[in-house]
Amino acid sequence: MTDGSGRTAVPPAPTGLGALSATEIMAGYRRKAFTPRDVVDDTIAALEATNEACNAVVTPMYEQARAEADRLTRDMRAGEATGPLAGVPVTIKDLVFVAGVPAYGGSPMNRSFVPEADAAVVSALKASGAIITCKTTTCESGYKLTADSPVTGTTRNPWNPGRTSGGSSGGAAAGVAAGCGPIAIGTDGVGSIRVPSSFCGVFGLKPTFGLVPRSPGFSPPSWASLAHTGPITRTVADAALTLEIIAGYDLRDPASLPVAPRRFDANAASLTGIRIGVSVDFGYAAINPDVRAAFGKALAILDACGAQVTMDGPGLDPGILEHTLKPIAFTEQAAAVATKTTADLASSEADYRDVVTAGRNYSGTDYIEAGYRRGRARNAFVKLFERVDALVTPTVAVTAFEAGRIGVDTIDGSKVDPHLGWSPFTWPINLAGLPAATLPCGFDRDGMPIGLQIVAPWLDEPRIFRIAAAFEQAQPWATFWPSLVLRELSGGRAKG
Questions:
Q1: Is 182 helix (H, G, I), strand (E, B) or coil?
Q2: Which of 235, 390, 436, 461 is the most buried (most CB within 10 A)?
Q3: Per-residue pLDDT, 328
Q4: What is the DSSP pairing of strand 160-164 with strand 183-188?
Q5: C-alpha dihedral sign at 21, 27, 33, 35
Q6: pLDDT for the residue 4
Q7: What is the CATH class of 17-474?
Q8: Is the Cβ–Cβ distance between 165 and 121 less than 8 Å?
Q9: 165 in active site
Q10: Please, what's the b/e burial string for 356-380 (b: 16 or more CB within 10 A of its CB; e: otherwise)?
Q11: Where does the Amidase domain start and stop, copy by copy (predicted)?
Q12: How far is 156 from 422, CA to CA, in rounded Å?
């Protein structure tokens, strides 16, 4: 992987323990090289430095994290059994409920809301021994693809704080990119895990719809039939381990899938025999030239790994944004605040109010007709996966733009929708409920990360992990660190 100028750039890694992967942290515990308290102290220091520069943290949970780390340190020293993620720091997006901790969700309407129950994913992580360090930033109710909100302000990118982190899981991705712990939990309704992961140069996975339950504590405030919960990590192995823990059936979530627990193998292997379909534009999307160039190089890497790479996409309707996604997503957003009045919404962002208004203006017929078109789009993917084993696209059509903007309205001379048109590859996957991941595949001419999206058939996350692990081995990305990390977070905090 190159730095955008064609040079191979592998800067020195930060020395803080919060920058280690989950597998490295657990290996260190087995060697008795350091303790959970050491890891949590370093992680909190990284979070504080990153928050000052990037505004990634909503609610610190540092004292609780230190207390839990001390308890686990005692247990490990006593040789008592611990869980599969014992002592590993994790952050939680502020749309996901943690009992007793405010859940603003980026909305002024939630300023006094404190959930009484953990989301299912949080319960699973706590049971595994993971240590929750903080809640991370999101946009208002997750409605857009940046993490700026009237509650927390603008979240910035650790590669360049003048650029956006992306969103809506922007604080989650920025924290992982900046070495603030190896695992973050995000949500994704139209690309909200994959967009910030692409912009921040980390790995992000949106599992099959329903594989990770959202109840009882998390009922999506928007995108109810579109929203997935999943991990953001620096390595493929960490994402696979996290998914093993958070996936599972929960009767309280009507979308939850009754599937048995599974192990996910993230070991790199040859891709010989894997048929990979390729679409650079879904037949209608504008794309930045730097993204197109990095995507072409990524295809060559997949070919060198043994994959059978062929130009073959789903053949989607060019009107899918206006006639399928918006009637569904905007109506579901409006329904989430159906009891709110104009006065209630007065403190919300103007763009958010516009989305709610648009959603209220769609009729029930509009919503049902969009559902029929959604079914046709899903069927296009069904037919595609009869021909190929996986699909790859660019993750986002652009790289991170100026912080504070909602998006871009022009790509390579073509006009696009400023809200969603610059991320044309993410939300069609939500409409279909498919699993998809983004992994770093290069940098633009300004040194900003570029992502490669891998899409697999329903419940075939193992296919994604196999392809991603092979790419990771061929082009390691975890050795690349933002300048913010090298400037602010290095400094010998590691112990042992």
A1: coil
A2: 436
A3: 97
A4: unpaired
A5: positive
A6: 52
A7: alpha beta
A8: no
A9: no
A10: bebbeebeeebbeebeebbeebbeb
A11: 38-464
A12: 18
Query: How many residues are listed for the chain in this entry?
Result: 496
CA distance 106 to 167: 12
Strand segments, DSSP code E, in 300-413 are 308-311, 390-394, 410-411
In angstroms, the CA 112 to CA 93 distance is: 17
Strands 390-394 and 449-455: antiparallel
8 Å CB contact between 334 and 308: no
Closest by CA position to 238, among listed 477, 484, 488: 477
Alpha carbons 162 and 404: distance in angstroms, whole number:
9
Distance CA 199, CA 169 (A): 11
Q: Which of 136, 16, 133 is nearest to 68 (CA)?
A: 133
C-alpha span between 203 and 188 (Å, rounded): 14
Q: In this structure, which amino acid lies at residue 451?
A: G
Contact of 109 with 93, CB cutoff 8 Å: no
Residue 415 annotated to the active site: no
Model pTM above 0.90: yes
Choose, from 93, 126, 144, 326, the residue flagged as catalytic. 93
Give residue 9's pLDDT.
47
Residue 279 per-residue DSSP state? -
Mean pLDDT, each 10-residue run in order, the chain (496 residues): 50 77 97 97 96 97 98 96 95 97 94 94 98 97 96 96 97 97 98 98 98 81 88 98 97 92 88 97 96 98 98 96 97 93 92 96 98 98 98 98 97 96 98 98 97 98 98 94 67 36
The first and second tokens of residue 264, run together, are: 């996910």
Tell me the Ramachandran region of residue 361: left when phi exceeds 0, alpha when psi lies from -120 to 50, beta otherwise: alpha
Which tokens go with 403?
């912080």
Cα–Cα distance, 298 to 55 (Å, whole number): 32
Instruction: Determine which one of 21, 107, 165, 168 is catalytic.
Output: 168
Q: What pLDDT, on a 0 to 100 scale, did the predictor assign at position 496?
A: 31
First to last CA, the chain: 31
Residue keyed to tokens 């109810």: 224
- Residue 443 near residue 450, CB atoms below 8 Å: yes
Listed by start position, the domains of the chain span 17-474
Q: Give the pLDDT confidence score for residue 486 in this predicted structure.
A: 59
Per the annotation, the verdict on 149 as an active-site residue is no
What does the DSSP 8-state code read for residue 412? T
Q: How far apart are CA 115 and CA 113, in angstroms?
A: 6
Burial 104-115 (b: 16+ CB within 10 A, else e): bbbbbbbeeeeb
Q: Which of 165, 192, 256, 423 is catalytic?
A: 192
Residue that has been written with the tokens 């570029």 in this structure: 450
Q: Take residue 328 and report the two structure tokens written for it.
A: 């569904």
- Residue 344 and residue 342: Cα distance in Å, rounded? 5
